[in-house]
């Protein structure tokens, strides 16, 4: 166990949330730097906006790649979308909703717009697909979380309807690099200020487990 486990956070542990969110929108990744490219690790991409490794261009590119991947796999059911309490999770969720809405994907989010644990999202997908009639459209999902990573980090993970043996070898690990470079622009639907992005294309659902 770490020597500081269970102790009060120190000033050096704190993160400037304003700077973190500004960097998410303002910093464009340099794809000549391997540390700023999209890289799928444990089912998804992780990084920090302050290091230009988790910025809006990354999320837009990954989400568009997911849209095209699910279409290629014949996945036409709803997409469950959840987020955790990391500061970068909410803006990343909003960016993803813009892309999903522009592509006409039906999205299911928490009815209270709250934070949702990863197991709750996985449970919702499995339950939906198990109860679906034979041959009915299957669901998949995205959970916006870097798991146990530090407060300045963000994470974006994809849960496919059918778990492939080597997801990271698919274009989800390659295609976003072309999009962040501007060679393959993603589709997005802008939303008026004060409105939830993609509202016409998503509805709310109560997840079976809620962390408060």
Strand order of the largest sheet: 1-5-4-2-3-6
Low-confidence stretches: 165-170, 192-212
Indicate the overall shape.
globular
Q: How many beta-strand runs?
A: 6
Q: CATH topology, anyone?
A: Alpha-D-Glucose-1,6-Bisphosphate, Chain A, domain 3
Provide the number of structural domains: 1
> Under the CATH scheme, which architecture would be assigned?
3-Layer(aba) Sandwich
The radius of gyration over CA amounts to 17 Å
**Number of helical elements:** 5
Structural class: alpha/beta
Kindly estimate the percentage of residues that lie in beta strands according to DSSP: 5-15%
* H/E element sequence: HEHEHEHEEHE
CATH superfamily, please?
Answer: Alpha-D-Glucose-1,6-Bisphosphate, subunit A, domain 3
Fraction of helical residues: 25-40%
CATH class label = Alpha Beta
Biggest beta sheet attributes: 6 strands, mixed
Average pLDDT reading: 83
Distance between the termini: 26 Å
């Amino acid at each position: 166990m770490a020597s500081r486990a269970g102790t009060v956070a120190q000033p050096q542990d704190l993160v400037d949330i304003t700077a973190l969110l500004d960097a998410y929108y303002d910093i464009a990744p340099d794809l000549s730097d391997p540390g700023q490219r999209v890289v799928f690790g444990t089912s998804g991409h992780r990084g920090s906006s302050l290091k230009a490794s988790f910025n809006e261009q990354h999320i837009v590119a990954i989400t568009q790649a997911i849209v095209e991947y699910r279409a290629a796999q014949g996945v036409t059911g709803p997409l469950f979308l959840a987020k955790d309490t990391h500061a970068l999770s909410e803006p990343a969720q909003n960016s993803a909703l813009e892309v999903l809405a522009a592509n006409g994907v039906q999205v299911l989010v928490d009815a209270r717009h709250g934070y949702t644990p990863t197991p709750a999202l996985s449970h919702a997908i499995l339950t939906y697909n198990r109860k679906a009639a034979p041959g009915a459209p299957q669901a998949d999902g995205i959970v916006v979380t870097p798991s146990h990573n530090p407060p300045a980090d963000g994470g974006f993970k994809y849960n496919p309807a059918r778990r492939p043996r080597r997801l990271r070898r698919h274009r989800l690990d390659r295609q976003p690099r072309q999009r962040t470079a501007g060679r393959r622009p993603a589709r997005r639907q802008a939303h008026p200020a004060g409105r939830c992005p993609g509202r016409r294309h998503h509805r709310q659902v109560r997840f079976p487990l809620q962390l408060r």
